[in-house]
Amino acid sequence: MAKSSADDEELRRACEAAIEGTKQKIVLSIRVAKSRGIWGKSGKLGRNHMAKPRVLALSIKTKGPRTKAFLRVLKYSTGGVLEAAKLYKLKHLSKVEVITNDPSGCTFTLGFDNLRSQSVAPPQWTMRNIDDRNRLLLCILNMCKDILGRLPKVVGIDVVEMALWAKENTPAVTTTQRTLQDEPVETAVTGSDMKVSVEKELVAQDEEEDMEALLGTYVMGIGEAEAFSERLKRELLALEAANVHAILESEPLIDEVLQGLEVATNCADDMDEWLSIFNVKLRHMREDIESIETRNNKLEMQSVNNKTLIEELDKLLERLQVPSEHAASLTGGSFDEAHMLQNVEACEWLTGALRGLEVPNLDPVYANMRAVKEKRAELEKLKATFVKRASEFLRNYFASLVDFMISDKSYFSQRGQLKRPDHADLRYKCRTYARLLQHLKSLDKNCLGPLRKAYCSSLNLLLRREAREFANELRAGTKASRNPTGWLEGSTGSSQSGNSADTSAVSEAYAKMLTIFIPLLVDESSFFAHFMCFEVPALVPPGGGANGNKSGSNNDNGSDDDLGIMDIDDNDSKAVKNSVDLVALNESLRDLLDGIQEDFYAVVDWAYKIDPLRCISMHGITERYLSGQKADAAGFVRLLLGDLESRISLQFNHFVDEACHQIERNERNVRQTGVIPYIPR
C-alpha cells in the first residue's frame, strides 16, 4: 500500500514552518483535495468548483493548564510553498458528515457552528483513500473527547467499522505518539487510548472489583458433590413442608374464593343471557342498517345517474340550440360581399349541426327523441330556406354581372380597335361566392344544376357577343383583295405569279382569332369546372399528356380526352362518382360555349371567299392548335377546333372540285396531259 501523507516528515516540517510564531504544535498533517458542493446536490461540481490541493493540519496550543485544539487549512503558494489559509477552532466543530454521493466514501465535510454565513455550502474534503480518511477523523474525534470533553455529531460513517479499523491499524498512529510524548495532556491521544475510547469497555475497572468482592463473601459450598446434593435435598423438603403448611392455613381463604367463584358464575350466566338478548337486538339493528344502506346506495346511484343525465341533456341542448346570429344570416341575411363571412360561418355551422344529428355522430338512443326529430326538421327547414335564397341571389347576380358588361361597349371591339376580352374582374367577383357554392353543394347537391345553367346562359351571351364583335372588326380591319381564279390562263409552262395578290393577311386574321379566343375559352372552361364544384380529377396543364402513361400520339383517334380531363384510374374508389360529374361537366360546357362556333365559321367563310388557297394555311394553323389542346381543360374547345378543321377541309375540297371541273370543261387537251401542269398555279 502506498505511504500515507500523514507519515510524511517533510510535510510536517513544512506545516510547522508555515505556522511558525503561533506557539502551536502540529499533531497530524495530511494532504487533501478541496471542493465546494452545492446545497442539496453534494458531490456535483460545476466549472467553478474544481478540486484544489490543500493540507489539513491538526494542532494544539498549551497555555498553563488549558489546551486548545485547532484545525488549520494550508494551501500552496505560487512557488509551491505552504502558507496558512484558514484556521478553525475544534471547540466549534458540531458535525462530521461523510458525503454519501461519493461512492468511494473518501469525501466528507466539517460543520462549524460559528460560521457567519450558514447558507453557503461548507467545503468538501476528499482524501486519497479510506485509511487516510479514518486516520484523520479518528484523530479529530479523540482530540474532541479528550481535550474538549464532548464529541461532534457523526453522520454517514459506521462507528463499528471505525472501531475495527482502529483495532487493526493501531500501529499506524505511532507518528502521532512520537509527536505527543513530551506533552502531559497530549498523551491522551495515544494509540492505546484511541482504541479504548472507541471500543467502549462493557464494565469499568471499579465495577469489576466490586463484583469480585461480592462473590467472595458468599460461600457456595460446592467443593464436594455429595455434600452439595444433601444440601439441595434438605432445602427441597423444607420448601415442600412450607407449601403444605401454607395450604392448610389457607382453607378459609379457599372457601371465600369458592363463594366468590359461585357468585361470579351466576353473574356470568346473567351476563350471557343479557348478551344473547343484546345479540338479537343487534341482529335486528344490523338488518335495519343494511336495509338503510341499500336504499342509500340506490339513492346515491340514482343521484349520480340523474346528474350525468342532466349533463348529457345540457350538452344535447347546446347542440340543438341555434345561435341567433346564424339564424338571422340563414333566414334573412344579406349576400353582399361584406356579409359573406357571416354567411359562410352560418353555412359551416348548419352543415356541422345537420351532420351532428346523424346516427354515426349521435347516439342512436337520442336519434328517436322527439326533441331531436323536431330540431332536425327545423334545421332542414333552415337549410331549404337558405338554399333557395342563395340560389335566387346567385342567379340574379350572374345575370346582372353579364348585363353590366354587355351594356358597356368599352368591353368589346369597336371600329378601328380590336379589344382582347378580359374576364379577370368577372372571375374576381365570382370567386367571392366560391365558398358559398361549396357549402350549397354540401347542403343540397340538387341546387347546383339550376345555378350552373344560369351561369352558362349568362356567360354564353357575353362570349358570343365578344366573339361576334371581334370577328366583325377583324374582317373589317383586314386589308386584302380578292385573288382572281385565273386557273384557265396560260398553258403548261405558264406562270401565275404576276397575277397573284398577297392574301397572307387573311391567314393572319384567322390565326389572331384563334390566338385570342382559344385560350380564353379554355380558361373559362377550367374556371367553370372549379367554380361550380365539379368533382373531377385534376386538370392537366397544356403540353402534358392526359395521363402520365400516355403520350399525345395515343389520343389522336380516341375520345377519352375530349373533355380535357385527366383519365380516371380504374382503382380509384371515386371512379363512378367522377364519371357522373364528367358527363354533367360536358353538358354544362356545351351550354356555356354553344353558338360561338358560328363566328369562327364566318371568319373561315370570309377567308375562303377572298382566297380559297388560304384554306391550306388555315388548316395548318387549326391542326397546330388542335394538337396543342389535346390535354387542355375544355373538351368543347377540341370539338370546336375539330369542326373548324372539317369546315376548312370541306371548303378546300369544294374549291379543288370546282377547279378540276373548270379545267376539264375549258381545256380540250386535259385528257392527254392531266391537271398536273395546273397545280403550281
UniProtKB/TrEMBL annotation:
Residues 49-147 form the Exocyst complex component Sec3 PIP2-binding N-terminal domain. It holds the Pfam family Sec3-PIP2_bind. GO terms for cellular component: exocyst; plasma membrane. GO terms for biological process: exocytosis; Golgi to plasma membrane transport. It comes from the Eukaryota. Keywords: Coiled coil. Residues 491-502 have a biased composition (Polar residues). Residues 558-567 have a biased composition (Acidic residues). Residues 282-319 form a coiled coil. Residues 474-502, 545-567 are annotated as: Disordered. Residues 548-557 have a biased composition (Low complexity). InterPro entries: Sec3-PIP2_bind, Sec3_CC. GO terms for molecular function: phosphatidylinositol-4,5-bisphosphate binding. This is Exocyst complex component Sec3 PIP2-binding N-terminal domain-containing protein. It comes from Rubroshorea leprosula.
